[in-house]
Amino acid sequence: MPTICMFYGIIIRLYYAPGEHNPPHFHVYYNEFTAVVDMQTGEIREGSLPIRQRKLVEAWTELHQEELMADWKLVMSGEEPFKIQPLQ
What we know:
- The protein is an alpha+beta fold.
- Helix content is 28%, strand content 28%.
């Protein structure tokens, strides 16, 4: 599962999974917390994050939605996703 971005201790990854279930999503890791985040809404679908990290991930998702969707298309066809700029 490639890491597409890291910022403030938050790691964001996408699975190589042609035919993976929709909606498009990514996986977030922060210390002992894990979450699955909907790319289109920025909402946590599974798991949890501390409030501060959740807000950072929501902001990052909003800023990079087009890039996330492009990466989703790549992993759905078994290709490696591009790295996405971290939140600064």
